[in-house]
Amino acid sequence: MTTVNDQNSESGLSTLYPCRPVAEIDALQEALSTLGTVRSFQQNDEIHAVQQHEKFLYLFTEGRFTAVRANDGLVLSSVRGKIIYGIAECLRPRGGWYLKVEEACKARVIPAEHAFELFTRQQLWESVSVLLAWFLQMYSLRDEHLVGVPAYVMIRSKLLELNLQPADIRRDMNAADFIQERTQLARSTIMAILGELRRGDYIEIKRGKLIGIKHLPKEY
Length: 220
Description:
The protein is α+β, with helices and mostly antiparallel strands. The protein contains nine helices and eleven strands. Helix 8 (175-183) crosses helix 9. It starts with 7 loop residues before the first helix and ends in a 7-residue tail after the last strand. Residues 151-218 form the IprA winged helix-turn-helix domain.
């Protein structure tokens, strides 16, 4: 889901994924800051942009979230910090995914029609297009890591992604769970490859948590 100066770089994720357009997100959030109402959300809340034919945008200034595919629970991506959720779904509703809240936070919730009227009035659709282009880049690159490639390549990319997460997230995240949620590979396959990487001294894992990566070969 998918954000340029950059909160991605704080966690090192810009080395794997394109930097999110922070300047454009800031401009959109500032323009929308007087619309809608502020709501509180709790851990594990699921947020759907389209609800019973009503459409809403969600402006978060902080928090941690995962984008989840609705039909099977596959984790599409993780994001932390400032985000705007709902533009694409409200423009072309299909209910394909939702946002899961990972820590308590607040958001400004705005009817999509009011937001879109403001984008037109203040000529902000260029900023919107930059944001949507970033989402497209994110998911295209994710597919390069996961579609039509061997299981090892999937696991390697997710180990690199996990290793670049902030320390507090890595400390609480089981490495095999992180990989399985984002690839849906069989757990036996994941554990077998992680075991061989540990024995080969390529990675360090303790109590299921990734401590560090020494070197990951591109091929298994």
